[in-house]
Design brief:
Length: 265
């Protein structure tokens, strides 16, 4: 196994599939689902930050080479692999990727081990919508979608697609409405992969329990955020007090604390 500084690691098997899972911290469980192209240094740094805020982070390797820095050729190669993989359905608007079944089992195992009100999860880019799919289970109490990018926005219908089945969406709506489970989602406004239509669709489905953070990346924005900005809490994070990406990161950590803290005695 490839080492990741500050993390332990093991093979975890669900649905007959073994995957390497990196782990750090103590406290309620949070599943961190990395973005394209893999567990890059910024993704690992984010996972450390979540763990150091008081959580047990589970960081499964879904694709890519652990610790390898981001580059355009590397990212394009991993996107190509995802497009032909049976575990991902990158064009599906009304169906989840098969890999979410494995991730749901991981979330259940984390909750069974750690207890508490439930677990949290954050997906990013290609895995962004996966946190929505995990919301169908009662132990998922703090789902976060960071620049959710599936289905790829080719055509008007897919721009608003949520990458979950109609049956799952019924359960997700019920959990938001009847159980008060909230959904937090992040994006840059000029991001061509995660479009405004997707967030509007989430508002329609989740209602008042949907919390959106949409960071201005239009031309001439006051913080000089480039229009190509995509990864809110990793590659495009500006870790400076007062910057909107830092505020978004702080909100993610606060969201996990609000939702996952044990009830008072």
């Amino acid at each position: 196994m490839i080492e990741l500084d500050g993390f332990s690691h093991s093979q975890m098997t669900f649905e007959g599939v073994a995957r390497r899972v990196y782990r750090r911290g103590a406290g309620p469980g949070v599943i961190v689902m990395h973005e394209i192209p893999g567990i890059t240094p910024p993704v690992a740094a984010f996972a450390r930050r979540v763990a150091d805020a008081g959580f047990t982070v589970f960081l499964p390797r879904l694709f890519g080479t652990v610790g390898k820095p981001l580059s355009i050729p590397y990212a394009l190669g991993q996107i190509t692999r995802a497009c032909v993989s049976r575990e991902f359905r990158v064009m599906a608007s009304r169906a989840s990727s098969p890999i979410t079944t494995w991730l749901r089992a991981l979330a259940r195992a984390a909750h069974e081990e750690l207890g508490g009100p439930g677990v949290g999860a954050i997906g990013m880019c290609l895995t962004g919508n996966f946190a929505l799919a995990l919301m169908v289970d009662p132990w998922m109490m703090a789902p976060v979608l960071s620049q959710p990018s599936l289905p790829f926005p080719l055509g008007a219908g897919r721009r608003a697609g949520l990458h979950v089945s109609d049956d799952d969406l019924v359960i997700i709506r019920r959990r938001a409405r009847d159980e008060g489970v909230p959904l937090l989602a992040l994006r840059f406004t000029a991001d061509p992969v995660c479009r405004a239509e997707r967030f509007e669709h989430l508002r329609e489905e989740i209602g008042e329990r949907f919390e959106a953070i949409e960071i201005d990346s239009s031309r001439g924005n006051p913080h000089g955020i480039p229009s190509r900005a995509h990864s809110v809490v990793t590659n495009d994070l500006v870790d400076v007090e007062g910057h909107p990406t830092r505020a978004a990161l702080d909100r993610v950590l606060a969201f996990f604390k609000e939702r996952l803290a044990p009830p008072p005695l």
